[in-house]
Protein backbone atom coordinates (compact mmCIF):
# COMPACT_ATOMS: atom_id res chain seq x y z
CA UNK A 1 0.00 0.00 0.00
CA UNK A 2 1.24 3.45 -0.89
CA UNK A 3 1.14 5.81 2.09
CA UNK A 4 2.28 9.43 2.14
CA UNK A 5 2.75 11.20 5.45
CA UNK A 6 3.06 14.98 5.64
CA UNK A 7 5.18 14.90 8.78
CA UNK A 8 6.55 17.27 11.40
CA UNK A 9 9.02 15.31 13.55
CA UNK A 10 8.70 17.83 16.41
CA UNK A 11 4.96 17.07 16.73
CA UNK A 12 4.03 14.24 19.09
CA UNK A 13 0.86 13.36 17.18
CA UNK A 14 2.81 13.21 13.92
CA UNK A 15 5.40 10.89 15.50
CA UNK A 16 2.60 8.68 16.89
CA UNK A 17 0.96 8.44 13.45
CA UNK A 18 4.30 7.47 11.89
CA UNK A 19 4.63 4.73 14.51
CA UNK A 20 1.12 3.42 13.81
CA UNK A 21 1.84 3.26 10.08
CA UNK A 22 5.10 1.41 10.68
CA UNK A 23 3.39 -0.92 13.18
CA UNK A 24 1.05 -1.86 10.30
CA UNK A 25 4.14 -3.00 8.35
CA UNK A 26 4.16 -0.02 6.00
CA UNK A 27 7.07 2.32 5.37
CA UNK A 28 5.46 5.58 4.26
CA UNK A 29 6.74 8.20 1.89
CA UNK A 30 7.57 10.89 4.44
CA UNK A 31 7.32 14.51 3.37
CA UNK A 32 8.81 16.96 5.84
CA UNK A 33 6.33 19.61 4.78
CA UNK A 34 8.03 22.48 6.61
CA UNK A 35 11.18 21.87 4.53
CA UNK A 36 9.40 20.75 1.34
CA UNK A 37 6.01 22.47 1.39
CA UNK A 38 3.19 21.04 -0.71
CA UNK A 39 2.25 23.08 -3.74
CA UNK A 40 -1.20 24.52 -4.17
CA UNK A 41 -1.94 21.70 -6.66
CA UNK A 42 -0.79 19.06 -4.14
CA UNK A 43 -3.03 20.59 -1.48
CA UNK A 44 -5.99 20.48 -3.89
CA UNK A 45 -5.16 16.83 -4.63
CA UNK A 46 -5.19 16.02 -0.90
CA UNK A 47 -8.62 17.65 -0.55
CA UNK A 48 -9.98 15.73 -3.55
CA UNK A 49 -8.66 12.36 -2.33
CA UNK A 50 -10.13 12.87 1.12
CA UNK A 51 -13.31 14.67 0.07
CA UNK A 52 -12.16 17.38 2.49
CA UNK A 53 -12.61 21.11 2.73
CA UNK A 54 -9.62 23.40 3.14
CA UNK A 55 -10.68 23.99 6.76
CA UNK A 56 -10.19 20.25 7.40
CA UNK A 57 -6.44 20.62 6.82
CA UNK A 58 -6.03 24.10 8.34
CA UNK A 59 -4.19 24.25 11.65
CA UNK A 60 -6.62 26.61 13.35
CA UNK A 61 -4.63 26.60 16.62
CA UNK A 62 -1.66 28.20 14.85
CA UNK A 63 -1.38 31.90 15.85
CA UNK A 64 -0.82 32.83 12.19
CA UNK A 65 -4.30 31.48 11.38
CA UNK A 66 -5.89 34.14 13.56
CA UNK A 67 -3.42 36.82 12.42
CA UNK A 68 -4.39 36.22 8.79
CA UNK A 69 -8.09 36.09 9.66
CA UNK A 70 -8.46 32.56 8.32
CA UNK A 71 -10.80 31.62 11.16
CA UNK A 72 -13.44 34.07 9.90
CA UNK A 73 -16.62 32.39 8.59
CA UNK A 74 -16.54 33.99 5.11
CA UNK A 75 -13.04 32.83 4.19
CA UNK A 76 -13.06 30.61 1.10
CA UNK A 77 -11.23 27.34 0.50
CA UNK A 78 -9.15 29.15 -2.12
CA UNK A 79 -8.00 31.72 0.43
CA UNK A 80 -7.15 29.00 2.95
CA UNK A 81 -5.22 26.94 0.38
CA UNK A 82 -3.29 30.03 -0.74
CA UNK A 83 -2.35 30.69 2.89
CA UNK A 84 -1.27 27.08 3.56
CA UNK A 85 0.80 27.05 0.38
CA UNK A 86 2.49 30.31 1.44
CA UNK A 87 2.84 29.33 5.12
CA UNK A 88 3.19 25.53 5.46
CA UNK A 89 3.04 25.72 9.27
CA UNK A 90 -0.70 26.28 8.73
CA UNK A 91 -1.07 22.65 7.57
CA UNK A 92 -2.84 20.66 10.28
CA UNK A 93 -0.38 17.87 10.86
CA UNK A 94 -0.08 15.07 10.25
CA UNK A 95 -1.85 14.58 6.95
CA UNK A 96 -1.89 11.04 5.57
CA UNK A 97 -2.77 10.06 2.00
CA UNK A 98 -3.45 6.44 0.99
CA UNK A 99 -5.49 4.73 -1.73
CA UNK A 100 -8.39 4.82 0.79
CA UNK A 101 -8.34 8.62 1.01
CA UNK A 102 -6.72 11.46 2.89
CA UNK A 103 -7.16 12.89 6.39
CA UNK A 104 -5.61 15.18 8.92
CA UNK A 105 -4.94 12.49 11.52
CA UNK A 106 -5.96 14.11 14.78
CA UNK A 107 -6.35 12.17 16.98
CA UNK A 108 -3.59 9.83 15.85
CA UNK A 109 -5.75 6.68 15.64
CA UNK A 110 -7.71 8.26 12.75
CA UNK A 111 -4.87 6.98 10.55
CA UNK A 112 -6.09 3.41 11.09
CA UNK A 113 -9.14 4.20 8.92
CA UNK A 114 -6.77 4.86 6.01
CA UNK A 115 -4.63 1.72 6.35
TrEMBL record:
Alphabetical keyword list: Arsenical resistance, Oxidoreductase
Family matches, as Pfam families: ArsC (PF03960)
GO biological process: response to arsenic-containing substance
EC number: 1.20.4.1
UniProt catalytic activity: [glutaredoxin]-dithiol + arsenate + glutathione + H(+) = glutathionyl-S-S-[glutaredoxin] + arsenite + H2O
Stored CDD domains: ArsC_ArsC
GO molecular function terms listed in the Swiss-Prot or TrEMBL record: arsenate reductase (glutaredoxin) activity
Family: Belongs to the ArsC family.
Name of the molecule in the record: Arsenate reductase
Gene name of this polypeptide: arsC
Amino acid sequence: MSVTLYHNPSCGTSRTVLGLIRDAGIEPNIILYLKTPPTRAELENILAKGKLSARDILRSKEALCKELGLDAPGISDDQILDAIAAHPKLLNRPVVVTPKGAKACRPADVVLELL
